[in-house]
Design goal:
Rossmann fold, 14% strand, 41% helix, 4-stranded parallel beta sheet, alpha/beta, binds zinc ion, 2 domains, 10 helices
Length: 309
């Protein structure tokens, strides 16, 4: 009888559904996806390596097979993955996710995590005047610690939409992630309290969200425009501007060259902080939290001369 009852219970239980197969464009989205997905999702890593320039990720043939077999792809959007995502979606021929000139990806498997994020530097009208790379506003919102919770909510919503049977699990994991993020964000806000109003520049225009979080006032970039390398005239003018405005900090994203940055520091006395634009870009930045922590630590240390704790 006991055996029969067990058999009946087994028959009544739903067949064990295969785990969702998920890819992320960048490593920290894969990290958040693992935390939200838990046991119900198989996160198969990221397409970009953390050390690359997100605007110039090289497409590797293995991406096509991985994308073809995936149930979902998680991406930042705003065309920041333009160098690799549309081409890969075309080549992968996966009916769950097709390329789209405006929305980047269309289909049930597309999880755009920019939904609900307050996008900065949004142009009034679509224009390429700021260079070719940021036509829909600043797409580097993964460098804003404040955006982690919304990204996580979007991933949970995406998983619940594709796999409603496990929606309760995703909500539970999201709650745990948010509970972990709240004290972190509060702690980080303390770290950066002394940075408010400090003038700074970055190499690429990817620090808008970091500026919002830290209070740093980013007044210019080493690049002439996003994606356009500096010219001698631009650098001369930049030195004058940095001196006139008393710029204290130069943020160099680790994938950009050091020579120009060191020269600018010599000319102006500004300190250099190196940041990563994706997880795995710098040592010990494997996760979303570790990436934010490392970037903030490097910046605070460069400006104040001591590490926050
Ligand atoms: Zn950019």
């Amino acid at each position: 009888m006991i055996f029969a009852a067990a058999l009946l219970a087994a028959l009544a239980a739903p067949a064990h559904a295969a785990k969702l197969k998920v890819l992320a464009t960048i490593p920290e989205l894969a990290d958040i996806a693992s935390q939200i997905g838990g046991d119900d999702v198989d996160v198969q890593g990221s397409l970009a390596r953390g050390t690359e320039d997100i605007h110039q990720v090289v497409m590797r043939p293995s991406f096509v097979t991985r994308l073809n077999r995936a149930d979902a792809v998680i991406y930042l959007g705003l065309t920041v993955e333009h160098s690799f995502l549309p081409g890969l979606l075309d080549a992968a021929v996966n009916p769950k996710m097709r390329t789209d000139p405006i929305r980047e990806c269309v289909g049930p498997g597309c999880i755009d995590v920019s939904e609900g994020v307050q996008i900065l530097e949004k142009p009034e009208t679509l224009s390429r005047a700021e260079g070719e790379l940021h036509p829909y506003g600043n797409p580097h919102y993964n460098l804003g610690p404040q955006n982690g919770p919304q990204i996580a909510r979007n991933i949970a919503a995406g998983f619940s939409r594709i796999d409603p049977a496990h929606a309760a699990d995703y909500q539970k994991n999201l709650k745990a992630f948010l509970a972990e993020m709240d004290p972190k964000i509060a702690e980080w806000r303390k770290w950066v309290a002394s940075l408010k109003g400090v003038k700074a520049i970055s190499y690429h225009k990817d620090v808008a969200y970091l500026g919002k979080f830290t209070g740093l006032d980013f007044i210019d970039t080493v690049e002439f425009k996003p994606g356009v390398p500096p010219t001698p005239t631009h650098l001369e003018r930049l030195v004058e501007e940095m001196k006139a405005q008393n710029v204290k900090l130069i943020v160099r994203e680790q994938h950009f060259e050091t020579k120009t940055v060191e020269w600018l520091a010599e000319q102006t006395g500004a300190k250099i902080a190196v940041i990563g634009v994706m997880a795995n870009s710098l040592p010990d930045t494997k996760t979303w939290v570790k990436l934010q922590e490392k970037n903030l630590k490097n910046i605070v240390t460069a400006v104040t001369g001591k590490e926050p704790s």
